[in-house]
Amino acid sequence: METQHEKYLWLINRAKAVQPTVTAVAHPCDESSLQATIEAARLGLIEPILVGPASRLREVAGRASLDLSPFRQVDSAFSHESAARAVGLVRSGQAEVLMKGSLHTDELMAEVVKRDAGLRTARRLSHCFIMDVPGHAEPLIITDAAVNIAPTLSEKVDIVQNAIDLLRDLGASEIRVAILSAMETVNPDVPSTLEAAALCKMADRGQITGALVDGPLALDNAIDLEAARIKHISSLVAGRANVLVVPDLEAGNMLAKSLTFLAGADAAGIVVGAKVPIVLTSRADSRVARLASCAVASLLAEARRTSTRRAVG
Asked: What is the 3-state secondary structure (H, E, C) of 123-169?
């Protein structure tokens, strides 16, 4: 029988084996975000720079009996300034990861996407949930359920490629991407099926690389071999997908939260496609999910360091 959080614990243990990643933590001004940050530091996952009002940080630390003395702190007046200064630390090369504290996601992302002072690349930013689902054999990525509301076909190309690159950097031996819809046949009346078919052809033509891509697939025949067999779907992805690309944010958010609250899954969250990994945590996240998010970011940062060393060598 699978141990609870087995897949997340595997990620956390892998991250412990690499050097802690310097992480700019924007406005960790409540107990849950500050505790999670310090626990991740104690486990050797990150080396945090705490960005926020110094008096507020001291107050929160005092209430939670936390010692901030081992950590660098950058003072700010309010949450918007915390976001701007944390992004600035990344842009200046002082941090390799950006992490959300207790400020609103919109505040942080507004600084990230600024054209001249943000962290944008040529890629569209997208969010990935790395789900630890009890009874499922491997981690399951759901994208995008937090950033892109109603992505266009061209934006979905980046969303798919971002997820592939993420899973590759986490060490997956084979990446199997299912483009989800409500059905597994192409129906001109259902736009998501047309986009799924287009994405698969783009993968065939090398416009999306590094994975097996199939769709449209309904959720059941994307993750369950028996469901795929009953529907007579012959595919290397059907029934075995480890990346689920949803039609829009609403579908992805509902799918991820259904797994969390009805199936006992944990959801680690990361934004990819920027210059550095961005950890997005939620007040509803479990302790192990928060730590897994830090572990994923640390492993991605290590993969980038390794890639840079190879390029230089």
From this structure: CCCEEEEEEECCCCCCCEEEECCCCCCCCCHHHHHHHHHHHHHHHHH
